[in-house]
Amino acid sequence: MAYKPLAHIPTHLISGILGVGKSSALLALIQQQPPEEVWAVLINEFAPAGMDALLLQDQVPQDAKVTFAEVAGGCACCLANLPFKVALNRLLRQTRPDRVLIEATGLSHTRELKHLLTGPEYAQVLDLQSVMTLVDARQLTQYAQHPLWIGQVQAADCLVANKTDVYQAEDYQNLQAWQMRAGLADKPCYLVSQGRVHLQWLMQPAVQEANKAPTPLFSPIISASSSSAYQAASITSTVRLTLSREQLAASWQTWYQQQQKTWGTHIRVKARLSNMQACYHLQAVGAEYQLDVLPLEKSSPLSSMQRIEVIAVAAKEDIQNALTLWAQELGILDEA
């Protein structure tokens, strides 16, 4: 096999606020992978235990030439870049990929990540192409002066308005007006549902820009400091569920609604659970939640892995306690 140099590898950065559909977009891109290419996927997780790679591996064919790696525990930039660079460098050496995809945490500083990937350390190794930021037109006023979200959309080379299947007519009007008001009319904005993005949208070079503070777009509904209030907790176990799908769905909906009453709508939950019949993917953000069922033979070799991850505007101890109580109800906690 010929030696493949690590030079000018096409690289794509996907960003967007929590729950906007980044992982769905990443899966859609992976499904467009040319069979002759080797891809490396790096996922930056805010929570201490990675979740997205586990969920994606369940849905990617086991013979696909895709290698996943994670950087858990916070935004890469807030971690002084070191864990991110270590994970990226290791992934590049191990896979020598034809293409790199990076999913940033929903609380990431996209502009800083963009500068890192185009800086001197990676200038000859990576070829950063169009940075894609996903938005939800229904949330435009909600995140009005949220500095992370503003930075994400301003650093983007193209925007993707996801979840159009649940938009109302006014959401499309608000999206167009927002682009004009925010000075983003020159950025392509693609309308999709279920994260169905196209790889071709990312094939242009990333636009270089000065490192500047995000500019407020319009009057806030969330305070600019609210991002610092987000905390995360997770539970990992190897004890399978004994509940049926119906029992799991009822337990999850009751628990999630209780937490919304306690913590408000700024909450995101992801879980991967399995019994002897199937593997279940649970995802919720705000008022939206879904449960997907995968046959065990289509799930990853880690089919007995149970993991739940919660990110919310609440004290970390409170999140962990609520999560532990639910895991006890589900019967998945490992025996001490």
- In the CATH scheme, what's the topology name of the largest domain? Rossmann fold
Main sheet characteristics: 8 strands, parallel
Instruction: Please indicate the percent range of residues in DSSP E strands (runs of 2 or more).
Output: 15-25%
Extract low-pLDDT stretches: 211-227
- Distance separating the two termini: 48 Å
Average pLDDT figure:
84
Please give the CATH class of the largest domain.
Alpha Beta
- The CATH homologous superfamily of the largest domain is called P-loop containing nucleotide triphosphate hydrolases
CATH architecture of the largest domain: 3-Layer(aba) Sandwich
Instruction: Tally the beta strands.
Output: 13
Percent helix: 25-40%
Shape: globular
What is the overall number of helices?
Answer: 8
Order of helices and strands: EHEHEHEHEEHEHEEHEEEEH
SS class: alpha/beta
Description:
Helix 5 links the parallel strand 6 and strand 7. It contains eight helices and 13 strands. It has helices at 22-30, 52-59, 82-95, 110-118, 147-155, 169-181, 245-263, 316-330, and strands at residues 9-16, 39-44, 66-71, 99-103, 126-128, 132-135, 158-161, 189-191, 230-237, 267-274, 278-285, 288-295, 306-313.
